[in-house]
## 1
Amino acid sequence: MRKLIFLAVIAVCLSIAYAQSHNDHREGGYQQVEYNEETHGEAYQAALHYLSSKEIETSNITPKIAAVYQKIVSGVMYKFHIMFNDQGWIVEVWSQPWLNNLQVVSFKRIHKN
């Protein structure tokens, strides 16, 4: 019985170590993904619309996606890194497609270092 418990503890420790070593591309629970119009298009448009409503977006500047992150949380949380020339923004959009729900939950400016 003790050997079985010992082996279970070792297995858990190894799985945690494996997960940590393979999640270096994650940011706060988010996994970086490639932008896909079919998957991310509506959420990205919601992010752009939100920035426009805050009068952040300049209509004569074409936005560029610098990075896309996502995580699963009773829906999908997307984090878009959007650049307008040298001005960057991070916009988080929560999506529940089965409820037709898209909601911007946060946005912040990317400060240059």
## 2
Amino acid sequence: MGVVKTPVVSTRTPRRESSRAEAGDAPTRERVAQAILESGPSTVAALAEELELTPAAVRRHLDQMLEDGTVTAREQRTYGHRGRGRPAKVFALTDSGHDTFYQAYDDLAVSAMRYLRDQAGPEAVQEFARRRVAELEERYAPAVKAAKPEDRAQILAEALTHDGYAASVAAAQHGDQLCQHHCPVAHVAEEFPQLCEAETEVFARLLGRHVQRLATIAHGDGVCTTHVPDPTRGPAPSTPTGRKDPS
């Protein structure tokens, strides 16, 4: 007669274990979100390299973030000849994803701006916007203006990053692009673009040259992008159709 084996009954509770795993994943998921915030739309490979994670681990977190609605995916833009195969996907933060980084705006701020506009006119809104960034200009000016002209955009980006704008500088064909991956007043600026215009004016004065605002988070773009021309590299690009150059 054979030995009858008693079946082993699992006492684990999968749902609880899953909850624990998700809680443990939270810090890494925050790192993924922070990397996308600072670098802009990113591929799985780029995130894996930056965070020193496996591509599979990054994909797992991104899948959860897609389900949560904190990121969106799209095909990576390619310029010139494209190789065989489908282009890689890039992942960008959604409005909900940006909101997790404690943006300094709320309904009260919008209401206050509307009241100012209605009571004192659009000129008062413009003056408020200029005063708001005047303090930044005063703090940034010593370091930026002390730098060599070719280094000023980078020094400005570092100062902006210190203040929470997650800024970086990328080389472009006819100059540099100052990119701000986070905007504390994006939702307010959707209705009051004077905030963006005043900021652009400050950038021009700090950098000592005419600059062009090419894109803004408030306008629906993923990154606020300002072109900083370099006269030695040819003419500046045209402002995109439908956009007013606020500077």
